[in-house]
Amino acid sequence: MQNIAPLNWRRFPERYLLKGNYCENCKQAFFPPRAICPNCRRKGKLVSMEMPRTGKIISYTKVYVPPEGFKNEAPYYLAIIELENGARVLSQIVDSEPEKIKIGAKVKKVFRRIGEPDKYGTITYGYKFKVVE
Amino acid sequence: MGVVIVGAGITKFGEHWDKAFRELIAEAGIKAIQSSGLRGEQIEAIYGGCMASGRLIGQEHIGALIADQLGLNPIPSTRCEAACASGSVALRMACLAIKSGLHSIVAVGGVEKMTELNTEGVSFALGGAGDQEIELFHGATFPSLYALLARAHMHAYGTTEEQMASVAVKNHANAMLNPNAQFHKEITIEQVMNSNYVAEPIKLLDCSPITDGAAALILCSKDKAKELGLKGVEIVASEQASDSLALTGRKSLTELRATRIAAQKAYEKAGITPSKVDFAEVHDCFTIAEILAIEDLGFFKKGEGGIASEKGKTSLKGKIPINPSGGLKAKGHPVGATGVAQAVEAYLQLMGLAEQRQIKNAKIGLTHNVGGSGATAVVTIYKRFKG
Question: Which of B153, B283, B333, B368 is catalytic?
Answer without folding.
Answer: B333
